[in-house]
Amino acid sequence: MPRKKYNLFLFDLDGTLLDTAPEFYQSLNKLLKSHGLKNKNFTQIRSKVSDGVNALIEMAFNISEAEDGFLNLRESMLETYKKVSLNSKLFPNVAKVLDALAKQNISWGIVTNKPKEFTLPIFENFGWENKTEILVCPDDVNNLRKPDPSSLDFAINLSKFSKEKCIYVGDNWRDIEAANNSGIDSILVSYGYMTSEELIKIKPTYKIDDSIELLKFI
After folding, report:
1. pTM of the entire predicted model
2. Which distant-in-sequence residues (6+ apart) come within 8 Å of 189 by Cβ?
3. pLDDT value at residue 4
């Protein structure tokens, strides 16, 4: 059981609240097909989703960000992804957890490395703008990304809570390191996009296997 209760729950988006892997799978393979290349399997793509679009393109096309053609590939993939991004579903029990936070009048918000251009439509699609005012993207902090703590610090400043009353929930090493760098507690969810071997190396304050376990922190 957690040793204390929290006033603010901050969540990562992809791999924590939202399962975006199917949409990235669709978008990347459409791009590969347009270049006459074979599809990547779902497992290959899923394991890279938390690393972002650039990592997916590097893996699929064996190309670095510095090489000619990379930006065109990135723009093409994001154009496709934007069309299907609202199809993403919440992970099991996430809706129950967010409802429980609302019923207990406990504040929550989202801190993501996903640019606001793609995050805001998702945020509004779920009606979250009526439930929280905290949505922090790289755009809000000079494009700094986790594990840099700037986005978490920005969110906490918006909330007015002390850091000891805040906790960050994420699925990736960047999330946990960002929380450590910010000086707040963290929860690692194992149902996200990291492999079991990768999860072992991450040292959060707490670890859970199902989002429903978050209820014991409320």
Report:
1. 0.95
2. 15, 16, 169, 170, 171, 207, 208, 209, 211
3. 82
Tell me what pLDDT residue 99 has. Answer: 97
Fold of 21-87: DNA polymerase; domain 1 (1.10.150)
Cα–Cα distance between 112 and 183 in angstroms, integer? 17
Domain boundaries, the chain: 8-19+90-217, 21-87
Give the active site residues. 12, 14
Question: What homologous superfamily is domain 8-19+90-217 in, according to CATH?
Answer: HAD superfamily/HAD-like (3.40.50.1000)
pLDDT score recorded for residue 3: 66
Q: For the segment 18-61, what is each residue's pLDDT rounded down to a tens digit?
A: 999 999 999 999 999 999 999 999 999 999 998 899 999 999 99
Residue type, 97: V
Q: Which ranges of the chain have pLDDT less than 50?
A: none
Angle of helix 70-84 relative to helix 21-34, nearest 10 degrees, comes to 130
Q: Return d(Cα 154, Cα 134) in angstroms, integer.
A: 9
